[in-house]
Amino acid sequence: WGLAALLVVIILIAICLINILVAQLVSSYGILATNAEGFAKMNRAYICVEMESFLTIKFRNRCFDECGFDSPLEFDSSDEGPAGGIQILAASSIRTHPKYVPDRVVRFTGDASPMDPWPTNKIEEEEELGVL
């Protein structure tokens, strides 16, 4: 009986160790799957930098100057933003997407003057009128 009990214990230990190994592999795969997009972007950026190193400095400076990083980005008419970027216009349908999060910076466009009153928010106006 002792030999049979020893054999059963050895088999149970082997099964438990295999289960632990499978759990570790599943956990590692989950971590890699969540970071896969980031790893792909890092690899793409590395390839771009390596390819750029083959270009001459003169050609790189000309490409940089053609991008217009010195001119400020225009948010709206009379509303210029910071310099150093490339402006990409987004479709208006993006605001109807369920995962859309509105910008926390409220922008008031138009010509500004120190004599103009501070613009008010439409929601605040409606609340004030509702209270009165």
Task: Give an account of the 3D structure.
- The structure is a single chain.
- By secondary structure, the chain is mainly alpha-helical.
- The chain is 55% helix and 8% strand.
- The protein has helices at 2-52, 57-67, 122-131, and strands at 72-76, 79-83.
- A two-stranded antiparallel sheet has the order 1-2.
- The model has no long low-confidence stretch (mean pLDDT 83).
Short description:
With 132 residues, the protein is mainly alpha-helical. The protein is built from three helices and two strands.
Give the C-alpha Rg. Answer: 30 Å
- Give the structural class: mainly alpha
Strand content of the residues, in percent? 5-15%
Count of beta strands:
2
Question: Any low-confidence stretches, pLDDT <50, length ≥5?
Answer: none
Strand order of the largest sheet: 1-2
Order of helices and strands: HHEEH
Mean pLDDT: 83
* Amino- and carboxy-terminal Cα gap: 91 Å
User: Fraction of residues in helices?
Assistant: 40-55%
What's the main sheet like? 2 strands, antiparallel
- The coarse silhouette is elongated
Number of helices: 3
